[in-house]
Design goal:
The chain is an alpha/beta fold. Helices cover 48% and strands 22% of the residues.
């Protein structure tokens, strides 16, 4: 099953996708938030190219595990995107995904300025990979 992950920010939305087997997450693209929210051409093209069966959306939480200040907006926007795409949606804890994405990009030699457009899609791939791993681990213990 292919999943598409969305890291919803106020200005940008990072997009990542799993492979067809639902094993590996990869960064796809960062689009302006309005492009995704309005189902613009480039977002529709991603949906057509990847044909996801599910959206996985990052849910901003505080370090104590409570919903963060952006959570209500992100949940509302995620549900609206899922409804418009006629796809089920799951929300997953995205704590520290952006910090980890920045660390990875910094290690790969990106400066703060050059990594800005990449952080959101890398963060989306990180929390999607965590979600895929947990889902696949459940499948192994249930089977």
């Amino acid at each position: 099953m292919r999943a598409l992950a969305l890291d919803i920010g106020q200005k940008r939305i990072g997009i990542a996708a799993s492979d067809l087997t639902g094993t590996i997450a990869s960064p796809v693209k960062v689009l302006p938030a309005q492009e995704v929210l309005s189902r613009g051409k480039s977002f529709v093209r991603i949906l057509e190219d990847y044909e996801p069966e599910l959206l996985v959306c990052g849910r901003p939480k505080t370090m104590s595990g409570e919903d963060g200040p952006q959570a209500a907006r992100v949940i509302e926007q995620g549900k609206a995107i899922a409804k418009a795409c006629q796809l089920p949606i799951e929300f997953v804890d995205e704590r520290l995904s952006s910090a980890e994405a920045k660390r990875i990009l910094h290690e790969e030699g990106y400066s703060e300025k050059t990594m800005r457009g990449r952080v959101d899609m890398v963060a989306a791939s990180l929390f999607l990979q965590t979600w895929l791993d947990a889902r696949n681990d459940e499948g192994r213990t249930d089977g």
